[in-house]
Amino acid sequence: MHIPRVAAAAMLGAVMVSVAHAQSALPTARLTAGIHLITAEVAANDPARARGLMFRERLEPNHGMLFLFDTKTVQCMWMRNTLIPLSVAFIEDDGSIVNIEDMQPKTESSHCAKRPVRFALEMEQGWFTKRGIKPGAKLAGLPAPR
User: Fold this and answer.
1) Does domain 5-130 bear CATH number 2.60.120.1140?
2) Could you tell me the pTM of the whole model?
3) What pLDDT band is residue 25 in, cutting at 50, 70 and 90?
4) How far, in whole angstroms, is CA 126 from its chain's centroid?
5) 74 Cβ contact partners less than 8 Å away, ≥ 6 residues apart
6) What confidence tens digit (pLDDT) does each residue in 84-110 have?
């Protein structure tokens, strides 16, 4: 069966919109970093963490994704199929930022926490820097570790 290119492109677009919509169905958490309010989708299971922010073309202002891991280990992130540049903050249970790494779109380079953590927060690249948020700063509103 031959599918015209326009129809194939439309189907691919529909699939990508469907994937993005499915991702946005994740629960959200309201976090604060000093005076800054963050709305973060919470990826708390393996499928949600694996999918992350893949295929998204943009993030709303002050929106991101909070990755909640089951165990406190040196967590690493990558950008496979992720279309927008992101910054990731690796976070201690008490909300203290351990380190922040900038990540480039569509790469498989690992970006890792400098010590074991349970949380990672991805935001638009430069979000932390623009607000003067550095390692040692604390975030409030994190879900209780499981």
Assistant:
1) yes
2) 0.83
3) confident
4) 13
5) 112, 113, 114, 115, 116, 117
6) 999 999 999 999 999 999 999 999 999
pLDDT tens digits along 37-86: 999 999 999 999 999 999 999 999 999 999 999 999 999 999 999 999 99
Distance separating alpha carbons of residues 6 and 84, to the nearest angstrom: 25
Q: Which pair of tokens denotes residue 67?
A: 């990755």
Order of all β-strands in the sheet with 97-103? 28-33, 36-43, 63-73, 117-124, 86-91, 97-103
Query: Quick one: tokens of 83?
Result: 């279309």
Residue-wise DSSP of the chain? ----HHHHHHHHHHHHHHHHHHHTTS-EEEEEETTEEEEEEEE-SHHHHHHTTTT-----TTEEEEEEEEEEE--EE--TT--S-EEEEEE-TTSBEEEEEEE-TT----EE-SS-EEEEEEEETTHHHHTT--TT-B-B-PPPP-
* Exposure of 143 in the CB half-sphere (CA atoms within 13 A): 21
